C-alpha cells in the first residue's frame, strides 16, 4: 500500500472571507478525497515582514518564515489558490515565496522549491477568474525549480460562485477543482514522493 503524498495547501491572501480561502478549503478536501495527506495553513497565521536583504543579514530569517520553510520542506506537493491583485501575484504570496527562497546557513539553495510539485487555482470577481495571478505564480515557481502541473482552475465571478456554507454552487466548478487535485496526487504518487 502506498503512502499518501504530503501536500501543503494555502491561499495567497489573508482576508478572512477571501474567495481564495474558500476555494483552497474546497481544494484541500478534494485532494484528501483523491488520496493526499493535506496540511491546510493560513498565511495570516504566519505574518512576515516585507523581504529585506538588510534585515535578513542583520537578523536572519524571521521565525514565521522559518516555520513556513519547515512546512514546505516536509511537503513535496503544494496546492495554492493564488489570488490576484492588480493583474498579478498578491503581495502576501510573493513575500512568502521570497522569504521561503532564502537559504539558511548550510542549506541548499531553493531547498523549499526544487523538486516540489505544485497545483494552482484562483478565484476572482472578474471574468478571468485570477488567471493573470496564476500565470505570474506559475512563472515564479517554474523559475525556482518547482514543477507546476498543467491542470489548473480559475473561478470567475467568485462573488456569485459560493453557497452560504462555502461550497461551490456549480457542480462543474467542483469537478474542475477535483481534476486539478487528482492530477496533483497522481503525479506525486508517480514520483514516489
Topology:
Layout: E1 6-11, H1 19-33, E2 37-40, H2 53-59, H3 63-73, E3 77-81, H4 91-100, E4 117-123, H5 131-143, E5 147-155, H6 171-191
Parallel strand pairs: 1-2, 1-3, 3-4, 4-5
Helix pairs in contact: 1-6
Distance between the termini: 14 Å
| Helix and strand sequence | EHEHHEHEHEH
Strand content: 15-25%
Helix content: 25-40%
How many structural domains are formed by the residues? 1
CATH architecture label name: 3-Layer(aba) Sandwich
Arithmetic mean of pLDDT: 96
Overall 3D shape: globular
Strand order of the largest sheet: 2-1-3-4-5
Describe the structure.
The chain has 193 residues and is α/β, with parallel strands linked by helices. It has one domain (6-191): Flavodoxin domain (Rossmann fold, 3-Layer(aba) Sandwich). 40% of the residues lie in helices and 16% in strands. The chain contains 6 helices and 5 strands; from the N terminus they run E-H-E-H-H-E-H-E-H-E-H. The chain has helices at residues 19-33, 53-59, 63-73, 91-100, 131-143, 171-191, and strands at residues 6-11, 37-40, 77-81, 117-123, 147-155. Strands 2-1-3-4-5 form a 5-stranded parallel β-sheet, with helices on both faces. Strand 1, helix 1 (19-33) and strand 2 (37-40) form a beta-alpha-beta unit. The longest helix has 21 residues, at 171-191. The protein is globular and about 50 Å long. The model has no long low-confidence stretch (mean pLDDT 96).
Amino acid at each position: 500500500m502506498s503512502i499518501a503524498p504530503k501536500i501543503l495547501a494555502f491561499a495567497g491572501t489573508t482576508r478572512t472571507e477571501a474567495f481564495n480561502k474558500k476555494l483552497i478549503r474546497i481544494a484541500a478536501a478534494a485532494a484528501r478525497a483523491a488520496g493526499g495527506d493535506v496540511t491546510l495553513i493560513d498565511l495570516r497565521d504566519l505574518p512576515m515582514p516585507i523581504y529585506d536583504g538588510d534585515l535578513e543579514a542583520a537578523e536572519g530569517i524571521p521565525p514565521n518564515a522559518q516555520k513556513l520553510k519547515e512546512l514546505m520542506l516536509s511537503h513535496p506537493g503544494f496546492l495554492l489558490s493564488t489570488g490576484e491583485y492588480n493583474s498579478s501575484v498578491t503581495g502576501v504570496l510573493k513575500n512568502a515565496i521570497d522569504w521561503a527562497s532564502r537559504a539558511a546557513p548550510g542549506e541548499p539553495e531553493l531547498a523549499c522549491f526544487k523538486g516540489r510539485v505544485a497545483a494552482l487555482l484562483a478565484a476572482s470577481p472578474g471574468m478571468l477568474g485570477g488567471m493573470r495571478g496564476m500565470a505570474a505564480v506559475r512563472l515564479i515557481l517554474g523559475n525556482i525549480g518547482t514543477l507546476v502541473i498543467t491542470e489548473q482552475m480559475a473561478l470567475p465571478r467568485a462573488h456569485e460562485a459560493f453557497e452560504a456554507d462555502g461550497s461551490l454552487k456549480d457542480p462543474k466548478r467542483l469537478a474542475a477543482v477535483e481534476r486539478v487535485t487528482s492530477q496533483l496526487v497522481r503525479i506525486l504518487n508517480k514520483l514516489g514522493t
